[in-house]
């Protein structure tokens, strides 16, 4: 219970920073950042073998944010975990900042790969996982994809590759909030039954509530017991989670809150402190 309380506190702080930094930048993607927050919080504060003071540690676990437009969630999580000073969050998308609209591996401590072109993250994760197998370096690779992103053909090529090479050190999440920039995922291009499809591609699949820390932890624990195949965690989430007027609102996929909306959002999140 103590660990769950810590994760909840951290996630709430990360959500506050997501809203604040996007508001100040007047640009960004709040909806999908907020829906993925609990997953990232669990990975960085409970699960992954990492050292913020030594971000290039050879046997560190790797994280790939395939849905790179959710960079504010990653930036806020990295800052909270101690990879860089939180004051830098206020420079999001500003000229000269290390924190641009999509993650830059050459500039941001803790970012493993530059992402933003949707559909490519799992392919990169496969390469990282193969490196672990070939050179005998013990680490796991975690990936977060968007549900709309899985409409990309490259995702399915990568899914075949993960299974073909028996990459049991790959654990992928799909952030299933059922909203993408053009509307509902099931209306734009339906991906369901998503779990059945990934099982057919040779993956071990777990379905969870992506905002329940106990379920996220249990799924991650289960993934580590799976041998000979990769694991997919289908995380059912809410776009804009934590801010009432953003939740399940497609318009907040890529629209920054106004100053007034930011104040209201921070008031709501402060009630969870």
Give a nutshell description of this structure.
This protein is α/β, with parallel strands linked by helices and 273 residues long. The protein has helices spanning 2-25, 30-47, 71-81, 121-135, 153-164, 185-188, 194-200, 213-225, 259-270, and strands at residues 62-65, 141-146, 170-176, 179-180, 183-184, 204-209, 231-236. A 5-stranded parallel sheet has the order 1-2-3-7-6, sandwiched between helices. Strands 4-5 form a two-stranded antiparallel sheet.
Task: Tell me what the structure shows.
This protein has helices at residues 2-25, 30-47, 71-81, 121-135, 153-164, 185-188, 194-200, 213-225, 259-270; strands at 62-65, 141-146, 170-176, 179-180, 183-184, 204-209, 231-236. The protein has 273 residues and is an alpha/beta fold. The protein has a single domain, classed as Rossmann fold, CATH 3.40.50.970. The strands form two sheets. Strands 1-2-3-7-6 form a five-stranded parallel beta sheet, sandwiched between helices. It has a two-stranded antiparallel ribbon with strand order 4-5. Helix 8 links the parallel strand 6 and strand 7. Helix 1 (2-25) packs across helix 3, helix 1 (2-25) runs antiparallel to helix 9 and helix 2 (30-47) crosses helix 8 (213-225). The model has no long low-confidence stretch (mean pLDDT 97).
